[in-house]
Specification:
The longest helix is centred in the middle third of the chain and has 21 residues, at about 195-215. Helix 3 (about 55-70) runs parallel beside helix 4, helix 4 (about 80-95) packs parallel to helix 5 and helix 15 (about 385-395) packs parallel to helix 16. About 50% of the residues are buried. It contains 19 helices and 23 strands. It starts with a strand and ends in a 7-residue tail after the last strand. The strands form six sheets. It has a seven-stranded mixed β-sheet with strand order 3-2-4-5-7-6-12, with helices on both faces. It has a six-stranded parallel β-sheet with strand order 15-14-16-17-19-18, sandwiched between helices. Strands 9-11-10-13 form a four-stranded mixed β-sheet, sandwiched between helices.
Amino acid sequence: MSLDKKIMLGNEAIARGAYEAGVKVSAAYPGTPSTEISENIVKYDEIYAEWSPNEKVAMEVAIGASISGVRAMASMKHVGVNVASDPLYTVSYSGVNGGLVLVAADDPGLYSSQNEQDSRCVARAAIIPVIEPSDSQEAKDFTKFAFELSEKYDTPVMVRTTTRLSHSQGPVTLEERQEREDKPYTRNAAKYVMMPGNAKGRHVYVEQRMKSMAEDGCSFPINRMEIQDTSVGFITSGIPYQYVKEACPDASVLKLGMVHPLPRKLIEEFASRVDKLYIFEELEPVIEEQVKSWGIKAVGKEIFTVQGEYSANLLRKAVLSEKETEYAGKDVPARPPILCPGCPHRSVFSVLNKLKIHAAGDIGCYTLGAVAPLNVIDTTVCMGASISTLHGMEKAKGKEYIKNWVAVIGDSTFMHTGVNSLMNMVYNQGTGTVMILDNSTTGMTGHQDHAATGKTLKGETVPAINLYHLCRAMGIEHVVEVNAFDLPELERVIKEETARDAVSVIITKSPCALLKGVSFPNVCRPVPETCKKCGACLRPGCPALTKNADGTVSIDETMCNGCGLCMQLCKFGAIEALPRVTGTGK
């Protein structure tokens, strides 16, 4: 029964689709552009929802729920799929009991990621089907369809979305939740125990399953032909479909909702009905390569890039030879991302910069320490890599080489995969200093809780993992906690710990300035008459500070969080802390 319509983000619509499909378990690790799925799904009391410590664990939680007989979902960004790929590749063989869906959020254009990975390639390698919606309504409907597909064909199903769909809004028709009776669990070692003898038999099943889906996909309602002007035809899917309809509204279109396996007969029929065929897909030529391998003539990456996010303008330029619309803001100065005023990472990096210490970095807000004026972070690879990278340097070059290096990692990322890396460092008798920048949240993705904050996704209070005791439990003798804004003590500790011939851990403890409940009673104000115009307060790059024409400094009180970093750096008393006036910020 239809209820009403609501404007929803694509991510919010996916959460609604899971609710309407009768999902009972949802697990995820926050990562843009997927985060809002879980933040919305937790609003439905009928669904158990959690932040898992990483994507592998989230996938395994969903697999366990599926095997027990309920519908389950795991959500993550594209690089999180890499972390989850170990269980994903195997559950492809074992199949499901209750429906199992993995939502993979790709990031064409690199808005908040370290690569432009195409998750369809992972799904092809894992031999699982991929469903790709084009708007918020489809995001809800296709999620529901994915669960039907999962149970019908005994397979996990990937719902692939992208940043543009995840974070754009559209009308969605809401429907009632369909409560589903739990499927009975029956012990079946041949199906669920993937040792070699069993896996061989399941691989045969998997290949037949995909063949059946490819044939049946020709009649799936999510794959449809829109026949209009047959002189030009497009095969497309996802958000690129919207660009085709905008730039070439009269063209014929084969809109694919299932992009793997491909419905070959439907594609061949469509190709036969159009004079010129284009394949318009972001990132990798996943559809194009298969279509061309069947002997179908089509134009694809010869004129469309494999890089970045597509647009209607790109299509107009490539196909219609129209001049690309000039960007009105092309002459506006670039505004690179920076750490927020009051960010404890800025304080830590200012000391590292002063001491001329290099940092092997990790994934989080602190990655911004790589750019001017801090210039501290030298490497960033993936979650948890900072510690392993430092360990590799030490084993390659020796202890003396890393005396002016540290590994920098956040509290959430440390819980994600940093624990394993630190364990390896201890086990393999490494040396080096690891700095855990504990700001009490998962900052870059929007302040989500994790196992060390003492709060669950549902807001329940639980025992918080103590990072100090966790490190000590690994046998690390030298573990120090320090206030990130206590510059003299922080400098002393860094000098002392980096000089050791042992594994040492420094935990800098100061909450993110944007967290709810974090109070900043003071504001920093300049005292121009004592300013020596040395610029020391400006070196950390706090955006609340501005250099005046005469060389003195102004501080924007609406931006200043009163952390006192600039005041500590000024040796002439030219900055003071005064009580904040109500209404000027935090």
